[in-house]
Design a protein that fits this description.
The complex is a heterodimer. By secondary structure, chain A is mostly helical. In chain A, about 80% of the residues lie in helices and about 0% in strands. Chain A has one domain. Chain A has helices at about 1-20, 20-60, 60-75, 85-100, 105-120, 130-140, 145-155, 165-185. The radius of gyration of chain A is 21 Å and the shape is globular. Chain B has one domain (about 45-170). Chain B is about 80% helix and about 0% strand. The longest helix of chain B is centred in the first third of the chain and has 36 residues, at about 25-60. The chains are: A mainly alpha, B mainly alpha. Chains A and B meet through helix 1, helix 2, helix 5, helix 6 and helix 7 of A and helix 1, helix 2, helix 5, helix 6 and helix 7 of B.
């Protein structure tokens, strides 16, 4: 991030100098810093409310129900979890926490699953199953995109959550394409 | 479809509370615990936003962002992607708070309910910070050779960007 930030700041300076837009860029700098706080404050209420609701759903057993629903799909994607109950629990927890947007719960479970998958495969090369786990976690499968909706709410959108159908379809397509790409690339390298 | 989507955020709190009651969960405590986590989460991203957004705003004001958009617009527009979202697609796999800063900037300057603003929101909501996630998982598991993981994950991102633009173009 250090390099990226330096590069971006350098590019802004260069363009401002060449185009004679120094004053405009300087004004944008203070304006940007102010709008960062506005953006975060605008999002804050929505994020807090929905995080609270997701916590209720988690404690009410929605995660467990989702896990049961997803079990056949998980066993297809990760054959090793048929014999390894611990791995299945971690995988299931990782995926359902991601779906509910509980990042704090998803990451530790996902890492435990990754460590177990590595132990099954051995060595420091990613197995096909590990690549699949990575794809499941890099392609977001959130049921309620709280951050995006909160950002919309903070900026005064008419109906912040009306992007839901679009987000669902897009997530589904992106995860499917990711898993398909994983399958197609399996034999080519490694 | 739109009416149904509008009703969902109203139905969910009620359904979740009832489900919690049935399972004898202390619903109010769970709500406030979750809300506290939301507060911490937003507090954690504010410092990155505060140093990234001025940078993005300067890039916009200096003309650097428009230059980048002009460069990539022909390709993006041929694929039906709004030109304003080009920068968002570039930063999305690399930095979560950077993507939030760029996405917020797009929504604020193009209008939060404009096609570009809505496309940006769908893109943000349906993708992840790919390289960060890869480094966390493979780093923790001690994987050095990631094989085709990054390529497959980037395919998923690209498919997500295209679908987001396609959906907003056709269904709003």
């Amino acid at each position: 991030m250090t390099w990226a930030w330096t590069l971006l700041a350098g590019a802004a300076f260069l363009f401002a100098a060449v185009h004679g837009r120094g004053a405009a860029a300087a004004a944008a700098l203070t304006e940007g810093a102010r709008s960062a706080v506005e953006l975060a404050l605008g999002m804050l209420g929505t994020v807090m409310f929905w995080s609270g609701l997701m916590e209720v759903m988690d404690r009410a057993g929605v995660s467990d129900a989702l896990g049961k629903l997803l079990r056949p799909a998980l066993e297809r994607l990760f054959p090793s979890c048929r014999e390894d109950g611990e791995l299945r629990r971690d995988l299931s927890c990782n995926v359902t926490a991601n779906m509910l947007g509980l990042g704090n719960a998803a990451t530790p479970a996902g890492i435990r699953a990754a460590v177990r998958l590595r132990r099954h495969a051995g060595g420091d090369t990613a197995s096909d199953e590990l690549c699949r786990l990575a794809v499941l976690n890099t392609a977001s499968v959130q049921l309620l995109p709280v951050t995006a909706a909160a950002l919309r709410a903070g900026l005064g959108a008419e109906n912040p959550f009306d992007i839901l159908p679009g987000v669902w379809v897009t997530s589904l397509v992106s995860v499917s394409v990711g898993l398909l790409a994983e399958r197609l690339l399996e034999g080519r390298r490694g | 479809m739109a009416e149904l989507a509008a009703l969902l955020p109203v139905l969910l709190p009620c359904a979740a509370a009832l489900a919690g009651l049935l399972r004898r969960v202390d619903v109010f405590a769970a709500l406030t615990d979750g809300a506290r986590r939301g507060l911490e989460l937003t507090g954690r991203i504010l410092p990155s936003l505060a140093v990234l957004l001025p940078c993005v705003a300067m890039l916009r004001a200096s003309g650097a962002l428009s230059a980048l958009e002009n460069l990539l617009a022909p390709a993006a527009e041929a694929l039906g992607i709004p030109r304003e979202t080009v920068a968002l697609m570039l930063i999305r796999p690399l930095s979560g708070s950077g993507a939030l800063a760029v996405g917020g900037q797009i929504m604020a300057s193009c209008g939060v309910d404009s096609p570009a603003g809505r496309t940006a929101a769908v893109m943000l909501g349906s993708t992840e910070t790919t390289f960060y996630v890869l480094s966390v998982y493979f780093g923790a598991a001690g994987i050095r050779k990631s094989r085709h993981a990054a390529a497959a994950a980037l395919c998923a991102d690209l498919a997500g960007f295209l679908t987001a633009a396609w959906w907003v173009r056709n269904f709003g």
